[in-house]
Amino acid sequence: MNNLFTGFRADEAPKDGEMFSAAIxxxxxITRDRALRTFDRLMQKFWADVEFDFSWWRFDFLHxxxxxxxxxxxxxxxxxxxxSAHAGRQLPASVQDWIETWLGRRERGRGVLAAMIGIDEDQxxxxxxxxxxxxxxxxxxxxxYLPQVLDAPLGRxxxxxxxxxxxxxxVTSLLxxxxxxxTIASHWGINE
Length: 192
Description:
There is one protein chain. 38% of the residues lie in helices and 18% in strands. It is α/β, with parallel strands linked by helices. It has one domain: Rossmann fold, CATH 3.40.50. α1 (29-46) links the parallel β1 (19-26) and β2 (51-58). α2 packs across α3 (93-103). It is globular.
């Protein structure tokens, strides 16, 4: 099986015949359709080997207590949690509450949080405050984080999981190089 699940830790990638679960939270029909295209490609590629269980949660509906609770339950045990939204300064309060609630219920070190933030029409481009918040949330749960940063028109971007994973690995290796660079003593003394 071609390994699409490179963003997952090796010991948790679905094996043949296993269940792969994803909770997808989206802002509107545009962001839902973008995520749907990505998951359609995923299913087409792996439908014979993996059973899929997707749950879809529209931001607006997370205000309702029953829906909120069901969405928390789904995210708490999903292999992948995807947030698909327009670029902005922050996610709605109900979405942040949802994230904070399932974060506390997840097994640490398990799963992936992915972000598809922004569309071509959005004013804010590139790395957004939403990306920063989601990355920090993933770190608190010891989850992998796969951001898709839209800095080009949507039509020219490949929104596949493979592309998101490749981009995340590049960022990860760059950050790894920075973090493991030997420290150079600074010369801040008066006589230096």
